Amino acid sequence: MRTSYEESRYEIAVPGFAEGARFRMVHLTDLHNCTYPGLIRRLEKALPDIVLCTGDIINCPSFPRVPSYDIALSFYAELVQRFPVYAVPGNHEERWKYAEDEKLRRHYRDFCGQLQEIGVEFLVNRVITLKTAGGTINIAGAALPKAAFKITKRGDRVLKKGEVARYLGEKPDGYTVLLAHTPNPARDYAEWGADLVLCGHLHGGIVRMKKLGGLVGPGLQPLPPYTKGKYEVGNTTLLVSAGLGEHSIPVRIANPRHIIYADLIRPK
Description:
alpha/beta, six-stranded mixed sheet, 14 strands, 21% helix, globular
C-alpha cells in the first residue's frame, strides 16, 4: 500500500539574514523504528540544507524487552549520505536511557554511539553554531526531564522557572533554533529565548477534527494544546509536526504522516 505524506512549508524571517539567502530545514519526528517508503526520495526533491529530527527514533517496548533500532539506523545511514542530520532524543529514548536494568542502559549507549558513527549529530543538551549563506545560526538540542511531557492548558508553565537554562545553559547570542521532542513547555522555551522551536511527540492528536484539531495525545490526554502547525508564544515561533509514525495506538485518522519544511529568509 502506498504511503502518503502531508508537507507543510513555512518561511521564517531571520533578522540580519543576507538578502536573497534561503536556508531550508526539514523537520522529521516520531519515526518509531518503522519504514517510510519514498520518504528519502521526497526529501531529495525538496533540496534541504539540513535535516532536523526531534526524537522517538526508536520504539521503546514494555520492560524488560530490549528496543530494536535496526530499521531506524538503516534509515539514518542512508539519510546522512545526502544531508547533514541533527537529532535529539524523545521520551522513548529517555525511558531506555534511565531504565533500572544496566543492560538496557548499555544498549542505549551503544545506539547513541552507532548514530554518531554513521554521521548523525546527536544533540543532548548541547548547542552548536552553523555558518550558512544567510548568516550564523545556533542549533540547540534539548533532553528535558519527565515533567516536560505533562499536558497542561496552552500558556501554562510546565517546568520550573529557569529550568530550560539549567539543562541548556543561557540562550546564546544570535538566532537560535531549539529542537525539543515535546511542545508542552512552549512557555518555558519562549522564556529561555528560543527564536524557533521544532517539536513532535503528540502525533498530531492521533485523531484530528477540523474545528477541534487533535483530540488525544499518545498517553490518551484529551485535547492537548499544541498538536500540529505553527504557534506564536511570546517572541518564539513553535512548529509542531504530527510526526511520521505511531506506537502503542497504531491509529492515525484524518492525520497523514507529516513533514515540515522551514526556510530561513531575510525579513521582507
